[in-house]
Amino acid sequence: MEVDENTSGAGIGPKLLVALGSDDQTKSPREDAHEPTSASTGNETRSTSRIRTYQLPETLWRWITWTPKRCRWDPDTPPEFSMWLNLLFGFAGTFTVANLYYNHPILNILAVEFHVTDERSSLIPTVMQAGYAAGLLFLCPLGDLFRRRAFVLILVFFTATVWLGLCVTNSFAVFLVLSFITAVSTVTPQLMLPLVGELAPPHRRAMALSIVVSGLLLGMLLARLLAGVLTQHTSWRSIYWFSFGMQYLIFILLFFFMPDYPSTNPGGLNYFGMLWSIVQMVFQYPVLVQACLVGFTVSSTFTSFWTTLTFLLASPPYSYSPTTIGLFALIGIGTMCFGPLYAKVIIDRLTPLISVMLGLTYVLIGQALGTFLGPFSISGPIVQAFLLDFGLQTSQIANRSAIYAIAPKARNRINTAYMVSVFCGQLTGTAVGNRLYAEGGWRLSGGVSMGFIGVGLVVCLLRGPWEKKWIGWRGGWGWRRRDLGPNGSELRKEEPPVERVLDEISAEEEGKGSDSGEEKGKQTARDETIGGELLKQPITK
Fold first, then answer.
1. What is the pTM of this model?
2. How far is CA 16 from CA 144, 219, 244, in A?
């Protein structure tokens, strides 16, 4: 599908589409205005008016989307996906996703500051979660259309600029609105993850993904810790000013070091068609459905635990202070540091399904120990926190490693489908966990969480690692990847993934002008049926 520049389904103007979704970055709106259209004076007047109208936005646009020479896309020497770039994405993910969680431990202070009730202040995390969900659903799919560097930089710059309002406003209504807006654009890590899955070599994909995923989980935990400490010793605005500075630091680092990559769909896509294709993918790819169901069950258990843990530790026999309860986040931070090494040694060598089942097993063991030991021994929640965080991390990495291989040109839409299921699981875990704890206490809520993990294991057992259809274990029971040698390296020495993927995209772009509609349809159909490879070679004309 191609986007009609006059009536784009997304409401996105052709100039924005050219700037973000096309490889021709030499043509600007001002140059469009100078194109000869008519010799009449009226047309010249309208052309001059267009130049004036677009002068300021165009200047700002050129400044944000300008690419340093070392980061520019060159099909002859494509940029290398290095460990430094991987760590940069992880760092950006940590302090971007943290924006959603800074308010959690200081809601009572925000209520006093804005002269509202505690119930009203609880709307802040609610609207931010709603904004984040909107960004996942309506912005992330655009990563399959636009150039990732420009798209990411615009979102980070927009978030940082709007965040300034949160630092200075004294109006609760304004604070709520700005919280929602910034949450919508706080989805840049979800654009980086598919890019990492696309560019990392297959035998290192899980490790590369684990660095970014660890950054996301670290941001969730670190945000609560930093917000509590800074607010206790200074003011609640300190953590928001800190985040404001971090957003601009992330923007500067990405601006100077994030390479430019071509769009995976240079021919354009209809926006509403992209959204509908997400629904179609759920009925098309069994691997995606399996990953979504498992992600739902694990994330619901994760949020249920961290929500009800506060109630357990604040009541007898523990009666811990909020600061002591907040230190439990350090347990999760420890597991994040161990994740990349585990991914390199275990996940990159096993089939994704086996790695997911191992992750669920860790969660189930931790959940069982914590549920039965928690009411009388602090060792239970400590072990539970470690195994739960570790199991969640490893299962998410394995799931992403599996789903990013099924549709190379639709990785952002695949990621959207997966993250929507994870988000729904988080909401379910929070609501169900609170309700069950109020009715039956710690053991009832923990027992139901064990049931969720049991459902996740059943979903894994219904479909084997080599099964091509929806249910069954056809293809064998092998638990090791078949594309790796005994030492863990790839059996076939192929061109590096960065060069292979991006050179093929570049080749498509060079030939798109001569492609007929029928040929494009065949190419799209061929690409969408790929499974287990990054991209197939372009169809020979």
1. 0.74
2. 15, 31, 27
Q: What letters, b where the CB count within 10 A reaches 16 and e where it falls short, cover 253-272?
A: ebbeebbbbbbbbbbbbbbe
Q: Letter for the amino acid at 490?
A: E
User: Residue holding tokens 């400490």?
Assistant: 229
Instruction: Name residue 472's beta-bridge partners.
Output: 463
The confidence score (pLDDT) of residue 457 equals 95
Extract the residue ranges of the chain whose pLDDT is less than 50: 1-52, 488-500, 502-541
SS3 call for 469: coil
Q: Which residues contact 508 (CB under 8 A, 6 or more apart)?
A: 266, 267, 523, 538
Could you say which DSSP state residue 319 is in?
-
Q: What is the pLDDT of residue 13?
A: 40
The pLDDT of residue 348 is: 85
* Structure-block tokens of residue 184: 């919508």
- Rounded to the nearest integer, the mean pLDDT of the chain is 79
Q: Which domains are assigned to the chain? A: 77-268 (1.20.1250.20), 278-482 (1.20.1250.20)
Maximum alpha-carbon separation in the chain: 87
Main-chain phi, psi angles of 472, to 5 degrees? 130, 175
- What digits encode the pLDDT tens for the residues 328-374? 777 877 777 787 888 888 888 888 999 999 999 999 999 999 999 99
* Burial tier of 112 (Cβ tally within 10 Å: 0-12, 13-18, 19+): exposed
Separation between Cα atoms, residue 361 and residue 365, nearest integer Å: 6
Measured CA to CA, the distance from residue 103 to residue 239 in angstroms comes to 9
Neighbours of 363 (CB within 10 A): 30
User: CA-to-CA distance for 512 and 494, rounded, in angstroms?
Assistant: 26
Neighbour-count burial of 340, counting CB atoms closer than 10 A to its CB (0-12 exposed, 13-18 middle, 19+ buried): buried
Interatomic CA distance for residues 203 and 490, integer angstroms: 6
